[in-house]
């Protein structure tokens, strides 16, 4: 397939790419710590350290066999991070964390961008999550998503190829017939490079790109994504001239 052939489906990472995951995770951790007297005197830097440690620990736990669902990974990762910092985790801490992560709002530009794309492409989400954990978050986007494929369905987390292969089987496409839009370099760009998927990197955090996994385009958010993927107004097919542009 040509690099510029129109895709049959646009797939998206969800957490961070479409919705405000980083802010939600920070709020969730603050909510948990606020119930622990020994943590109430911590400054923002110390709380931020917990947030980053939880993110790192949970990503590591996702790749450790046997497979465990994402809710279990988050609960156990939170408990371990708290113990390492002298806190005594309680049985309800994990549920308090999860309750804050069940309905995460989209980034401001996302609903309008996806609404524009919806008229032209099938839309799918490929996410390291559980069906029940992500359901309300997907609904909050306000645009119908044709396929929501989770690690819970595939029993595999990105960057494991099995999650993408499972998604493509459900959608009914080959890797070359999709464009994947994601924020993660290891979890999204690396996999796309290995599987031959065209990737658009959403660089919301102004990160430095690993050139080994270079995408076909880099955008700061989803605002201009519909124009990047739009059909030519002259009916000449997909905009090949747009692909490869970068706003970073």
From TrEMBL:
Q: Does the keyword Hydrolase apply?
A: yes
Q: Which SUPFAM superfamilies match?
A: HAD-like
UniProt xrefs under PANTHER family: HALOACID DEHALOGENASE, TYPE II (AFU_ORTHOLOGUE AFUA_2G07750)-RELATED, HYDROLASE, HALOACID DELAHOGENASE-RELATED
What name does UniProt use for this protein? 2-haloacid dehalogenase
Q: Keyword Hydrolase: yes or no?
A: yes
Alphabetically, the GO molecular function entries are:
hydrolase activity
Name the InterPro entries for this protein: HAD-like_sf, HAD-SF_hydro_IA, HAD_sf, S-2-haloacid_dehalogenase
Task: Specify the species.
Answer: Kaistia soli DSM 19436
Which keywords does the record carry? Hydrolase
One of the Pfam families matching this protein, by short name: Hydrolase
The opening ranks of the lineage are: Bacteria, Pseudomonadati, Pseudomonadota, Alphaproteobacteria, Hyphomicrobiales
């Amino acid at each position: 397939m040509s690099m510029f052939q129109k895709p049959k489906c646009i797939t998206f990472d969800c957490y961070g790419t479409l919705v405000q995951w980083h802010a939600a995770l920070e709020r969730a951790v603050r909510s948990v710590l606020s119930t622990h007297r020994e943590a109430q005197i911590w400054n923002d830097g110390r709380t931020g350290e917990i947030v980053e440690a939880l993110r790192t620990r949970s990503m590591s736990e996702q790749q450790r066999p046997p497979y465990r669902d994402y809710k279990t990974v988050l609960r156990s990762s939170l408990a371990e991070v708290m113990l390492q910092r002298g806190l005594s985790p309680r049985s309800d801490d994990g549920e308090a964390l999860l309750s804050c992560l069940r309905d995460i709002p989209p980034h401001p530009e996302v609903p309008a961008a996806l609404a524009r794309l919806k008229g032209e492409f099938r839309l799918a989400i490929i996410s390291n999550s559980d069906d029940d954990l992500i359901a309300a978050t997907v609904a909050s986007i306000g645009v119908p998503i044709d396929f929501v494929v989770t690690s819970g369905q595939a029993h595999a987390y990105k960057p494991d190829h099995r999650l993408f292969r499972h998604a493509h089987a459900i959608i009914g496409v080959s890797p070359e017939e999709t464009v994947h839009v994601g924020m993660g370099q290891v979890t999204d760009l690396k996999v796309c490079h290995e599987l031959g998927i065209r990737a658009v990197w959403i660089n919301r955090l102004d990160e430095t790109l690993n050139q080994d996994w270079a995408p076909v385009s880099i955008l700061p958010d989803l605002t201009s994504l519909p124009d990047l993927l739009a059909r030519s107004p002259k009916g000449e097919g997909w905009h090949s001239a747009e692909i490869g542009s970068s706003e970073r």
